[in-house]
Amino acid sequence: TQSTWGVGVAPHDDVVRVDAHKMKSKLDAKKSAAEPVPAWKLPEQSSFVIEYTLLAFIAAYIVNFFVGKRRNRQIAEAWFARNRQALEAKFSRVAHSSGEPMERVHYNRFSVYATGAPKLVSLTITLNLLSRHDLFSVVYNAVFPSDDTVSYDFALHVGSVERFVFALVPKRRAAAVRKELADLDAFAATVSIDTAPESMAVLTDAKDAAEALLSGDTAVALQNYGSLLMLLHVTDQSPLAPPATASIQPMMHAVLRLPGSDDDAKAEAFNVKMFFFLVDRLCALRLSARDAARVTAAREAAASKAAKVAAEQARELAAQRRIEKEREEAARRKAALARMTPEQQRRAEEKLERAEERKNLKRMRRVVKM
Asked: What is the DSSP annotation of 296-364?
């Protein structure tokens, strides 16, 4: 339509439609501003802090693995170079079956095996080093420091050493060592020996023999160079098993802290010489009458206790088997009765009752005879 001024005017419906469209646009804009934008619609961020941190940790772990492994190898080789001459002077062969004088058991564990010495079957030396190849262990050891150690396991000929147990250990570790080693827990008592270092506890079932071991040159060596010694253990038993009634191969086990200085290296050399000296003294040692009586009584008591425990376990096992057998028989009878007619079931039950009566009668007769 045309207005008075000749200008076209939109129809009323068109005006309403345009106004409604504008209002809807404004409402949508307000709603969009009020609602939070979903995370997937946000613009991508350029920060990779987590990824970079993870990659840096992996790289540090890998570098530490190779550095720590090489460091442990260097420590083991330096130790073997210091002690090789003394070992080869004592033993005719210092090598594993592979021909290697020192084998790597793990990244932090190395082993030396020697044979061919008088009075000894063999000597196994194990270097237990810190896990320097493991970054987590490195952090743990920084918070809770520990030491590299070297252990000596002397295997002696059966019958060459008197039967007794003995241990020399720092007093702060005496209780823990007693719990760890079954032979000490079963037989040994803490004794006081004047020649032993004040910082050391002596555990044994033969005090006279312990005094003989810790006398003379041994006492001097311990007083001057005993700072590295963590354990000296002599036994004719299996340390990790219940007491044995039969004679087994006697052992002497020693643990030293690995030297960290030249003075410590000298102390280590004196300790190794002391170990060889103790082997000779052990083979020449004879128990006194008092020690022999005490050791024999303790071994007999342990053997009697072990026999009782074994008999009790056998009875329990037999009772368990008997119960299981009765259950199986009851299940078979129940299955057989289910397949019978009522008359057959009655006869079978009567037969079982008669068999049970006969068993009870036999039991009563045995009780009367007793």
From this structure: HHHHHHHHHHHHHHHHHHHHHHHHHHHHHHHHHHHHHHHHHHHTS-HHHHHHHHHHHHHHHHHHHHHHH
Tens digit of each residue's pLDDT (9 = 90 or more) over 145-194: 888 999 999 999 888 888 899 999 999 999 999 988 888 888 888 999 98
Tens digits of per-residue pLDDT, 195-234? 888 889 999 988 999 998 888 888 888 888 778 889 999 9
Residues 6 or more apart whose CB falls under 8 angstroms from that of 81 comprise none
Tally of CB atoms within 10 A around 230: 17
3-state secondary structure at position 131: coil
What dihedral angle (degrees, nearest 10) is formed by the CA atoms of 77, 78, 80, 85? 130
Q: Which residue pairs from 58-61 have beta carbons closer than 8 angstroms and sit at least 24 positions apart in sequence?
A: 60/135, 61/135
pTM recorded for the entire structure: 0.71
DSSP class per residue in 175-212:
HHHHHH-HHHHHH-EEE--TTS-TTEEEEES-HHHHHH
**What distance in Å separates the CA atoms of residue 149 and residue 253, rounded to the nearest whole number?**
13
Cβ of 173: how many Cβ atoms within 10 Å?
13
Please give the Cα distance from 173 to 176 (Å, whole number).
Answer: 5
Token output for 180? 């760890």
